[in-house]
Amino acid sequence: MALRYSGYVGKYLRVDLTSGKISEVHLEEQLTRLYLGGNGFGTKILWDEVPVGVDPFDPENRLIFSTGPLTGTVWPTAGRLEVIGKSPLTGIYGDANAGGHFAPELKFAGYDMIVFQGKSKKPVYLWVEDGRAELRDASHLWGKGTWEAERTIRKDHGDGGIKVAGIGQAGENRVRFAGIITSGRAAARTGLGAVMGSKNLKCVAARGTFDVGVAKDEFYDYAYEIHQQILANEYTPSTSRYGTLGLVNPMNEISRFPTKNFQRGDFPYANEISGEILEKKFLVRRVGCYACPISCGRTVAVRDGPYKGTYTEGVEYETINALGARTWNRDMASILKGDLLCDEYGIDSISTGGVIAFAMECFENGIISEGDTDGLKLEWGNPEIVLELIEKIAKREGIGNVLAEGVVRAAKKFGKGAEYYAMHIKGMEMSAQDPRSQQSYILAHITGTRGADHLKGFPCIDETGYVDAAVRRYGEQYLPEIVDGLSTKYKPMVVKDGEELGAVADSAIVCKFGTHFPPAYYWPELARGISLATGMQLGIAELKEIGERIYNLQRCFNVREGIGRRDDTQPRRILVESGTGRAKGHAAGPLQELMLDEYYELRRWDKKTGWPTRAKLEELGLKNVAEDMEKMGRLPARGKRRR
Amino acid sequence: MYKRIALIENPPINTCVGCRTCESACSFWHERAFNPEKSRIRVTRTEYGISYPITCRQCFKAPCVDACPTRAIHRNAETGVVLVSEGLCIGCGLCVERCPFGAIVLHPDKKVAIKCDLCGGTPACVKFCPERVLRHIDVNVAAQGRRRSWVESKVGGGA
Question: Dihedral of the CA atoms A335, A339, A344, A348 (nearest 10)?
Fold first, then answer.
């Protein structure tokens, strides 16, 4: 039966790579009402279909490419792709999200989503064009980098409009933090590129001429209004001009810029790797994703020196930190080269920088020596070492084969106390927010459903104190603490709200640039936009409930895999060592448990175990989930509600 | 004055960034659906990340008008806009072949030629362009602006 909601195509693909069978499935109304799209769809399918305890590289794991009801429309930032699967890095729920132009093209080609299962005998890619899909031989693409594979496909088909999302050599080699890349933009985190590699799936190529329709024509005018609202936001111009690199200097000033593997939060040479330097010395042209009014991307080139000839799309704040300050590397040109290598091989630059910094600190402390590192001296700040290690990790050569497993497994292998230097949460390397200087991140990193990550709760208002945004969103009664980076007050509320807003953004799908930072629009605009597009007539409360449902189901997936309160913790270094600069004297230890208590209470999760309660799950319409959890002994005992 | 769509950039801040918001808006204005393949403006992106929007230049000696065997393409004498009469178009694609810019294309469903008609006077692409580099302007007026910025940069902008 055809779906009665607009915005969606109404169909998706099921691809069984083992048998080669492709089937077209109608999108069920229930799924759209309860889970909206992208992230929600993927979460539900993962919960329903991936058996507990299954190895992420097992053919039984699912890999889901999903779009949302706003994808392909003129809604600002409606060009993002969501990929979901069980993570080989963390063994729990995994997702990643990329901009660019691939996701709209998938819808124009006739599908809302693709669900992969099984494992192909030989390398293949999926070709999707105007309501048809087929698996094609990819043996000539196997071993190629992501840019090269894309170019080859466009050339083979003779159509420059084809959009491709796929893996490089790192995904093929099952590097546990390999990503999925589309024209230099990365769905990088949680290692879903390695899942793709384990299925012998090189990429998906899409081309389409179909319409994406919306329920009400008024949507067009309203989308225009939101474009203008984003353009008028006070933080948009600098985001447009410098991209995420506009954050380097401000975050360094407040000592939130992880340096030397989180030994400190400020990098004395931050000025040399800032957005201003990028514009002055390396910028070729700014670049935007589909329908984006911000356009934080850029094409950059290195014009002289040892890395001359490097030409790459965008370099982000996270990459600058991970391959720069995190490893004490101040050579901007080498970071751009590293960014290009990460894109071409298809690895997450955050985890890559994290694991390199970890190895450098282990080397410094004598835990590993030249005998373990193929003769390399892993000195802080040596750009050649950083680049050499990226190559080795992607190819799994020598020491790279150990580091390609991520910091947790590498620390186990090194022993001798190496785990103290493994800066991770639930197995995923930390992103570039030193939580000691922005305490909302003490919580946001540990409650993120995919491990240490900024993009779940994504609290921004207490970064440097965005008072206007805080008042617009939460009212005046929470000032001044709510915007104070060194206060934990009200932050559990902000983090919970951000997580739910984020789940909806990742399902709609829109960029968090707009909903989270710059904080240009919020629940009311999203509710109205999605309603006009789909015809669902969603209120704010209903939309929030969708966000909460998605987040709770992700948590349940993790609890089912054994996660609980004891895993919701920062690395020991963050708990016991003081931060630097404004965070001097601030370790996270005394604050973390208090914040968690308050957060669990807000979520109505059990404080002792960190498990969602039956009452909460039933309220969200997840009674069956509660039953399953009870059967597994993962539901908190009844009647132990707080007084 | 004959107005048409022009690209007026101010690098590095305002340039065509390849976001294709113009394509999306154009298709909805004309078709009530989002579909870049039905857009009358197309952003071309090179392998090196350089983007450039292409749409009809409303040529004075339009190759598409000359090429059309059924006289489906004509120029409005008053506004200078080159228009396609869908009823006369046979979808032969000669105009597509002859346009030096690739600015006229065949509609994927209707199989008739489609091209920029300036949305009847308020072009959707210009309205939406977030970089504000697409303008609806007479090129000679645009040239005034170019002359002024050149003089200011080379000779000096005063106090």
Answer: 120
